[in-house]
Write the structure tokens for this entry.
Amino acid sequence: MADIMVYCFIDGGWMGDVAVIAVCGKCGDVIGSHISSNENWAKHDITREYHHEQYRAHMTERHDGAGYTTEWVADVASHSALQELVQQQQAHSSETPPEGA
Ligand SMILES: [Zn+2]
């Protein structure tokens, strides 16, 4: 079985920091997130062992323990595989009310 890609990218900012998230390339779930002081730290933070534990747990629970490879996505808008996932997620999330509503 081919490794599942885990896409890591900046998803906005917060009080001068950046929010980085990791998305499962198979199901589109957000499986990790971190607030970092800048993009260089974000790249480092999202691949900390703490986050790898989350990725491994997700692969075990959802994808029969498949292997995975993390990929840093610097240009989200031009990343076709990631864009496809985002659109799938948006279509999916519009079916259910937002959390806490
Ligand atoms: Zn998944």
